[in-house]
Amino acid sequence: MEQAFAQIITSIGEDLGRDGLKDTPKRAAKAMGYLTQGYHQKLEEIVNNALFPSENSEMVIVKNIELYSLCEHHMLPFIGKAHVAYIPKGKVVGLSKVARIVDMYARRLQIQENLTKEIADAIMTVTNAAGVGVVIEAQHMCMMMRGVEKQNASMTTSMMLGNFRHDERTRNEFLSLIR
Known about the structure:
CATH superfamily of the largest domain: GTP cyclohydrolase I, C-terminal domain/NADPH-dependent 7-cyano-7-deazaguanine reductase, N-terminal domain
Strand order of the largest sheet: 5-2-3-6-7
Radius of gyration: 19 Å
Distance between the termini: 42 Å
Structural class: alpha+beta
């Protein structure tokens, strides 16, 4: 990967011998490895058995989970927040695990639509919940820095599973609580 970054830098007309660029291919490769670490993580390892018995059957929401991802079309960042909710059926997942699940899928080359679904499916798999709702709001650098260059545009995606999909009251409760 380091060699690939060196080739990219020289391809744009830069001099790798310049002081500011001498270690850039190595730093860029290390950064890319970090930004895509989700490929090397597994859901089971992230959750690490942090499931706890609970008689709660009301909605659990974790709001405003910041996320950073790379669009798979241009490899430019998109940055936003995820709101994740589920209705437990006998067990709840550790609070930090919800954020770690978001990070695991965000730290891959992505499109926001798929990211939203992958998070929802993972929460459903882990918790066996009665329902899961995920909403992601993000700004995409591929739309802001290039192309149409719209600085204030943001994208919102949602995925509703189980009760969140089939029960309008549940869906509306979730959506009103994340506003």
